[in-house]
Amino acid sequence: MNILIINGSLRGTSGNSAALAKHAAAILGKQATILTLSDPLPGIREMYQLLASSAGFLVISGVYWNNWSSPLQRFIEVVSAFENTPAFFGKPVACAVSMDSVGGIEVAARLHGVFGGLGCWTPPCSTLVISRTGQEAIAASAGKENDPNEDVWRLDDLSVVLHNLQTAAAMPQPAWKAWPHRELQIADGPWPGSGALDLESPKFL
């Protein structure tokens, strides 16, 4: 039961998102694969097979001007062709977002909405937002009686998110039903990491 950890950070294997990805992989052990979107990516067909072979997803990003990263945006645009296919359909998704001080919960909520549109679903307590200001508050009040920051999200809370994600991934697959939709097309070949992207969606202008 493999969980795919999607590291959407601009900084790749360094920085906050990488730390979250590594911590998640340490918790999950052999049941985890990290996909770092800033790295060279496999071909389109190989990416589909990776997604299809995954039982669930942990999507990680920093916050960049109230949005997720550009590598994650490009990934979403390309894999839109896999909407409601075995790549995503009926699989649980969780999100972990790092931020300086604001915007993280909004980014995480929108990511859940996007992956819900692709065919995924959200288990309970499957969102974690860690902020620089929150971690400074935790450090400042550590050890105090009636610590007012005891319930501020921290790295250790990722274990709860992953427990629920694994529990959801292990559940028997219900008989989900997809709404009617127009399938997009994407040619097989190298991953289209840059340049124009035409998924043959309708043109009306």
UniProtKB/TrEMBL annotation:
One annotated GO molecular function: oxidoreductase activity
Pfam families per record: FMN_red
Tree of life domain: Bacteria
Chain ranges passing through the membrane: none
Domain NADPH-dependent FMN reductase-like: residue ranges: 1-132
Gene3D superfamilies given in the database record: 3.40.50.360
The name this protein goes by in its record: NAD(P)H-dependent FMN reductase
Source organism phylogeny: Bacteria, Pseudomonadati, Bacteroidota, Chitinophagia, Chitinophagales
